[in-house]
Design goal:
Blueprint: H1 16-25, E1 29-35, E2 41-47
């Protein structure tokens, strides 16, 4: 598996409390990209509940 950062040099690491506050107070959509057996991209929008 290869993990890519879609926004390099954007943002900075959060402390645990900052991360909990962010996850608790924000609604964000995550996009996960994969390739199928033909190497065609698949983008999967995912919502989370914390």
């Amino acid at each position: 598996m290869k993990v890519l950062n879609a926004s390099p040099r954007f943002g900075k690491p959060m402390k645990e409390r900052q991360l909990e506050d962010f996850l608790d107070k924000n609604i964000s959509q995550i996009h996960i990209g994969t390739l199928n057996y033909k190497k065609d991209p698949n983008i999967h929008p995912i919502w989370y509940h914390y």
